[in-house]
User: Fold this.
Amino acid sequence: MSENTSSLRNFFVYKCLFALTFWNHVSLSVENKLLTPSNNFPEDGSDHNIKSLPLLYTNRPQSKSSSDWVVIQNTTESLSLSEIRDGSVKKLIALLSNFRQGSGLQNLTLTNVSVNWNDLMEIFQIVWHSSIEYFNINRATQLGDIESYDFDYSGTSMKALTVKKIHITDLYFIQDDLYRIFADMNIADMTIAESEMIHMLCPSSVSPFRHLNFLKNDLTDFLFQTCDTLIELETLILQRNKFESLLKVSFMTSRMKSLKYLDMSNNLLHHDGADVQCQWAASLTELDLSSNQLSDAVFECLPVNIKKLNLQNNQISSVPKGMADLKSLEELNLASNRLTDLPGCSGFTSLQFLNTEMNSILTPSADFFQSCPRVRELQAGHNPFKCSCELQDFIRLERRSGGKLFGWPSAYVCEYPEGLRGTELKDFHLSELACNTTLLLVTALLLTLVLVAVVAFLCIYLDVPWYVRMTWQWTQTKRRAWHEHPREQETVLQFHAFISYSERDALWVKNELIPNLERGESHVQLCQHERNFIPGKSIVENIINCIEKSYKSIFVLSPNFVQSEWCHYELYFAHHKLFSENSNSLILILLEPIPPYVIPARYHKLKALMAKRTYLEWPKERSKHALFWANLRAAININLPIAIDANKEQSDVTHTQ
Assistant:
């Protein structure tokens, strides 16, 4: 009976509390919108230890059963209110005044708040002197002008304030009036996020702040540059702002004597090296610099006592040796950069965890595990690995080290060569002989030396290649002359051969070629432009006539030849005749060697001819000249009609006159 009597008494007390407080203060009516509980209370009064009481505005008309509303201010721990408008602030303040210090309410959340500056400050002030320890405001719009407010920070239970998505409608106001309110708050934890905040003042006196979070604002390098009052600060989050200078960020932290964690990710940070040395807080042990614009020079500006360093998604191509001496560094994240190899541990003697995923590493250094003996885990997957002997050495050393590759084997796949793309590294194997570089080099060197020795002996002492080539050319020429009967051409041919050469090689043609072919019993009739071109006709017409009236076309090739424009014309017309008549009328004499790079691009026909057709080389040794002339006479040997001989005599008479 005593327990039932106690329950009834408690239920009666709660009903009275409702009548005195909730009905007068909770029912905040704005345009027929009522603040109502989102869950029902127990009807039997058996358990009233409610820890969370979320309330929101609805469009339902006021219920006649309002006597069922109860605010249990001694047992409610969390309260959520939504859609707070300017006209309902006084009723909200009256409601919150029931939760003085000593009550059970610890968490308060206000969502979609739209009030003027002074009303917002009154809400803050009443919360500051209540039992609330954690105050959250989501999506708040400030109406009216921002003015100076004398805020009373004394006697508070507040521990943490979280403000997200504040919209300031006043465009012209004194910045200090706004920022001073938050800067001097005597709490341990404060978050102002997604609010387009461009600055924050330094606290007026030594601040109890231990955790500050200014996520996704518009803060710049001017933040806290000369601030000496944040000596208790341990965590500072400045992610997604507009910081640019890593040097200024280091100066900002130098006065924060207790700072341990700093998040500067997703900013615009860069560091190109400077004469001024970076000055970080000596207590800083964890630093997040991911998603910035940092290059290799960042290793000149890092905290010496750092233990965890995140440099993911930057522009780092290598870790310069001797630049960074971070003896306390245990974790290093270099994923999504431009690394082409694994960094050594000469400056990171305590490194235990390394992440180099999604870089440009083709073949990791096989000596990594030797230079980094303390590394317990290496994340190097998702790189474009080139499956080669060097990579196989790396895999072998990793297995010997105890399997330290994180994500093995699915994250380690061959990208090159094309034939092995998609193959997991665990399935990639090469024979020992293929990867024994020393043995391959020795074998290749010995074979090369033997081959060079044999070729040198044949070329220098026996001249076998030259004699074999000349004999073959002479035999082929004699065989073609035996089988060919150019009777159909005897009525139009007037010359045995047309000579094409550069004027710079004219001395050799006149002193060597013409005398050796035209003298003796062979009676070779040559067409030379100086004596056989008809005056009055164009040069091009004379070239065509000489080529058409000649059985063969002799081209004296040399570096001078490819520099002559007229020689190019003559070669073109002769090549055209070669294809149109399907004849074997070209004779190539290589007077001097022609390097391939000397031949202009327009001489593609000459390149093709030299690649496909046999040519005669002018020997420097006098003892080989007789065989050269014999081969050349055999190539142009043909019985021309008597009319040509008469024409020759007439030409000789004209030339003599």
The domain at 484-656 is CATH 3.40.50.10140 (Rossmann fold). The two ends are 158 Å apart (CA to CA). The longest strand covers residues 107-116. DSSP finds 17 helices and 22 strands in the chain.
